[in-house]
Amino acid sequence: MNIEKYIEEFKEKFPDIIKAEVVNKKRLMVYIPKSLLKDITDYWFTGLQYRYIIVSAMDSKDGFELIYHFSDDRTGWVMSLNLMLSHDNPEIESMTSIVYGIEWIEREIMDILGVKFIDHPKPNRFLFAEDWPENEYPYRRKIRQEDR
Amino acid sequence: MGKKTIVPIGPYHPLLEEPEFFKLYCDGETVVDMEWETGYNHRGIEKICESKTFEQVFYVVERICGICSTSHPFAYANAVESIPGVDIPVRAKLVRSIVGELERVHSHLLWVGLAGHFLGYNTVFMWAWKYREPVLDMFEIITGNRNNYAMFTIGGVRRDVDADKAAKLLQVLDDVKKKTNMLIGAVMDDPVFHARLKGVGVLTPKDIHDFGAVGPTARASGVDIDIRRDDPYAAYEMLNWKVITAKEGDIFAKAEVRLLELLESISMIQQCLELLKKEKEGDIKVKVKDIPPGIGIGHAEAPRGEVFHFVKSDGSNSPVRHKIRAPSYTNIPTFRKSCIGGTISDAAIATAAVDPCYCCTERMTQVYDYNTRKRILNAAELIKLSQKKTQDIRDKLNLSSSTDQTWKV
Questions:
Q1: At what angle do helices B90-118 and B122-143 cross, to 10 degrees?
Q2: Mutation choice for B interface testing from A24, A61, A137 by most B CBs within 10 A
Q3: Chain B positions with Cβ closer than 8 Å to A
Q4: I need a labelling partner for B282 at 20 to 30 A (CA). Which of A78, B183, B187, B263 fits?
Q5: Distance (Å) from the alpha carbon of B315 to chain A's nearest alpha carbon
Q6: CB B31 within 8 A of CB B347
Q7: Cβ-Cβ contacts under 8 Å, B308 against chain A
Q8: Statement: residue B233 has pLDDT above 50
């Protein structure tokens, strides 16, 4: 797979992406604004038939970072979409309408980080018990620093 | 539609001995909807990893799963080593593949046994688990443990497979291969298996894509994916093997894929052992000084499918974020497709068909007499007992005890 050509074509198709870089051997990371998530997910998952892997979420200095991982099993490349949500308003559209299997991880991220997924079909607790305190998210930075 | 009845399975599963909770909504005998609850086993391992050094994380992720305890270190090693771009010695690659494939053999044998047990066919259960035992003994000889092998480290492996052990392993494999062939014959020709499993819990390639299902679950539906071939790691590029697939997508196809994979795995280990002879003994590790800032994405093909690890490093000695995705995370949701529309009794085997792993490991450290509450064995004595057992196996196989396998209590 010619990755330079792929990135070029990808940029032509989605000119609003922030940047696309090869982070490691066979690993592409595309940084996008959150408005592009639905279109690219649809293009990769439905159009190119990439396999959905998982979403990694973390609390970083500038906001909540969500990384959607997909895999192109024909070439072995792992393609990731990286987007940032602000600390004040961590909201993003749920991708369950496109990727059925994404339901669990979105619920998990709601539990651990408190990111809200709009239009999620079943936005209740996933990992934690129903009586887990409201507004307490163990993977947020403040809690991590207290831990150390 | 008539009145719906809720049939609960769990939180303690009657068969799997792992906590999860399925709610089957039934109309008569037919399952019309299902819900599940998880989180009974959540141990916050991703969070724990953030407070460990890169080296220590290996021993934490190994304890995610008690059955496939090499697959997580495998994916984690792939992820971490990709950050500085470490190229490990060929001998280490071969040893990694040997451990990985041996694990597939014991895990698939375990599943075949359980599948027989779920169907009320306990002879298969006893056979499969009996033939699995010598494989676990071999693990004990090579790594020192039946499970949680502690073999991996950044830049290679921690113990070598020397010529003595390799010869014994070959002997045991020959025997396991014969028994596996017998088991395959017995299962594939059995009319009960055919009647019970064919056409049950069918998953189409579209279902597999929608849920992102992986491993034998996907391959049994004709989706030809295998990380070992698609994104080769360790020694898999050097070996001659094929990816087993089936078209039907039912539970029989899943059993078929797993059984035939057993033979592929045995052949792969034999090839690895042959290649080991060409490499210098002891050359099993390269020194990796530190992990620079960056992102590492690694995956590996576990017995149940792709294990995925995402590691972010900021240049310190521990990961800033470590995301782990086990194969069951995307395989278990397929129950919605495989169970709904079937009967309650089919749901039991359909939920077992993806070989779900709810990540359980329990540890016994003390044994008390139930009546007198008097302590019979403590942790140190149990460790001594386990070491004595390892030594007994070594004596039986005429292997001398080596220094790398004596532990301090």
A1: 160
A2: A24
A3: 38-39, 42, 44, 46-47, 50-51, 82-83, 85, 209-214, 225, 227, 230-232, 294-297, 299, 306, 308, 310, 312, 320-321, 323, 325, 329-330, 333
A4: B263
A5: 15
A6: yes
A7: 53-54, 69
A8: yes
Give the confidence band of B352 by pLDDT, cuts at 50, 70, 90. Answer: confident
pLDDT of residue B401: 56
- d(CA B217, nearest CA chain A) in Å: 14
The pTM assigned to this predicted structure is 0.90
Task: Residue B173: name the closest of B270, B239, B87, B57 by CA.
Answer: B270
Contact B206, B218 (CB under 8 A): no
pLDDT tens-place string over residues B166-208: 999 999 999 999 999 999 998 888 888 899 899 999 999 999 9
Q: Which residues of B touch A23 (CB under 8 A)?
A: 294-295, 297
Helices B54-61/B71-82 angle, 10° precision: 160
pLDDT for residue B40 is more than 70: yes
Rounded Cα gap, residues A15 and A13, in angstroms: 6
A9: CB partners within 8 A, 6+ apart: none
Q: How high is the ipTM of this complex?
A: 0.94
Rg, Å, chain B Cα set: 22
CATH fold of the domain at A3-147: Beta Polymerase; domain 2 (3.30.460)
Judging contacts by C-beta atoms under 8 Å, the chain B residues touching residue A126 are 38-39
The answer to whether B110 and B277 have CB atoms below 8 angstroms apart is no
Residues A86 and A36 sit within 8 Å (Cβ to Cβ): no
Q: In what order do the strands lie in the sheet with B321-325?
A: B294-302, B305-313, B321-325
Extents of the domains making up chain A: 3-147
8 Å CB contact between B381 and B63 = no
Nearest CB among B38, B227, B295 relative to A29 is that of B295
Question: Are A52 and B330 in contact (CB < 8 Å)?
Answer: yes
d(CA B339, CA B26): 11
* 8 Å CB contact of B82 and A25: yes
Count of helices and strands (H, E) across chain A = 4, 7
Which is nearest to B218 in space by CA: B177, B254, B190? B254
Model confidence pLDDT, tens digit, residues B287-331: 998 899 999 999 999 999 999 999 999 999 999 999 999 888 898
